[in-house]
Amino acid sequence: MSHPADDPHAPALPGTLPEGLRAELLAFRRDLHMHPELGNQEFRTTAALKDRLERSGLRPRVLATGTGLVCDIGTVDGAPGSAVGERLALRADIDALPIPDTKTVDYASTVPGRAHACGHDVHTTVVLGAGLVLAELARQGRLPRPVRLLFQPAEEVLPGGAAEAVECGVLDGVGQILAVHCDPRVDAGRIGLRTGPITSACDRLEVTLEGPGGHTARPHLTTDMVTAAARVAVDVPALIARRVDARAGLAVTWGRLESGHACNVIPQRAALSGTVRCLDLHAWRQAPDLVHAAIDEVATLHGAKSQIDYVRGVPPVVNEADSVQLLHDAMAARRGTASVEDTEQSLGGEDFSWYLERVPGAMARLGVRPPGELSSLDLHRGDFDVDEHAITVGVELFTAAALL
Fold first, then answer.
1. 290-303: burial string, b at 16+ Cβ within 10 Å, e else
2. How large is the average pLDDT for residues 379-389?
3. What whole-number percentage of the chain has pLDDT above 90?
4. Distance CA 177, CA 357 (A)
5. Closest Cα partner for 313 from 350, 360, 355?
6. Which CATH code fits 19-199+317-403?
7. Same fold across 19-199+317-403 and 201-314
8. How do 251-259 and 361-369 pair as beta strands?
9. Do 122 and 391 contact (CB within 8 A), yes or no?
């Protein structure tokens, strides 16, 4: 497939992806796609990465959590040819999702009920490829700053594996961190950038309501639990929307409501679960207190006792301006300024935000839609797939960023 951003007559730049490595990375991504592993279970993926990096002469270290790894490229000891300054970290998430792969391709998942339906196999392959290219440049004394490859487990598991990775010391000596995330709304060969918030905060909410129960003929003598649960489901999001600035985008959305088993029995218990999403970092910090208060108010009004399990997830990913500029300049150097487009803030959550609480950095949206396609397959779908040219684009984006 032709990709308009490619120029076959352009001179080879330092860090350009060699054709042989391009084919190897394509095969590596497809192997990961066939063998998806859930968060904190990524043993095969970790072993495959470790083996390939060691064969390149590098010394990856498996994280203390048991899966995921870090790998440093370039020394900082002042020796001739060594890189200088704080390390640039390139981060990939390596876990898959607990959903079936429904594609009809020869590299479809071989694990029932598991699929790389969010593009983490692409993220992983991109960082691996960039690391292999940069390692060769480091051997030639052509790497201007040291680099750390970070292959992080459990991004899909709240509050995200990034928090544990930080506790393992993966940011020690790191001055800046970059990442990409597949975007099926952006054509392969292009990236989307945004300064400031680019994702939403995302928390998990579990609510249990309890009351004495009774006969549906006499709801006035008990707690009408189904009505109480329904009012919590409807009224709490409305209350929250009136207690914060509308521009904060704080939203409670339910994914499950269960109560009762018989048509003539008022149940003693109801359960609701959902997510709390927020576009604004300050409002996200207030969200637990606001949500607790709103649920308690509505439950008490209907005579139900509430138990609330509010699980902190991730804050918004807030891209730092200088890091966004670095990604812009790197992409422009490889593929021209026309290959960069603005992107909007999404309501999806991403635990890359935990790194940005400690060091400056940015995430780019990596285009994976085949050019000319009018429709796109959304993330977290069993039929999600990518235009694999995105792997080349991502590798060259990261290598250029490390060389600027």
1. bbeebbbebbeebe
2. 95
3. 89
4. 11
5. 350
6. 3.40.630.10
7. no
8. unpaired
9. yes
CA angle 165, 168, 172 (to 5 degrees): 95
Model confidence over 162-174: pLDDT tens digits?
Answer: 999 999 999 999 9
Give the CA angle between residues 11, 28, 334 to the nearest 5°. 20
Instruction: State the Cα–Cα distance between residues 26 and 241, nearest whole angstrom.
Output: 46
* Sequence-separated (6 or more) residues with CB below 8 Å from residue 219: 227, 266
How much is the pTM? 0.89
Distances (CA, A) of 365 to 41, 186, 373: 26, 8, 18
Buried b (16+ CB within 10 A) or exposed e, 174-185: bebbbbbbbbbe
Q: Backbone phi, then psi, for 351, in 5-degree steps?
A: -80, 0
Joined together, the tokens standing for residue 149 give: 């490859």
CA distance 217 to 229: 19
| C-alpha–C-alpha distance, residues 209 and 38, integer Å | 31
Which of 329, 315, 313 is closest to 358 using CA atoms?
Answer: 315
Instruction: Please count the residues of the chain.
Output: 404
Domain ranges of the chain: 19-199+317-403, 201-314
CATH class of domain segment(s) 201-314: alpha beta
Summarize pLDDT for 216-227 with one digit per residue, the tens. Answer: 999 999 999 999
Place of tokens 């009774």: 214
